[in-house]
Automatic annotation (TrEMBL):
InterPro entries: DNA-bd_dom_put_sf, MerR-type_HTH_dom. It comes from the Bacteria. This is HTH merR-type domain-containing protein. SUPFAM superfamilies: Putative DNA-binding domain.
């Protein structure tokens, strides 16, 4: 998934923030991956 898509989901509140690892990077866990899959599946089904 493109970084721009993840940033958009973060801005829109569809994805909770990750754990910051530096000023410009964050770490995401399996829960984030599940949420990304859910959002993608809902977009595929409902547009």
């Amino acid at each position: 998934m493109p970084v721009a898509t993840v940033k958009y989901y973060l801005r829109e509140g569809l994805l909770p923030p990750g754990t910051p690892t530096s000023r410009t990077q964050a770490q995401y866990d399996e829960e984030h991956v599940r949420r990304l899959r859910l959002v993608r599946a809902l977009l595929d089904v409902g547009g």
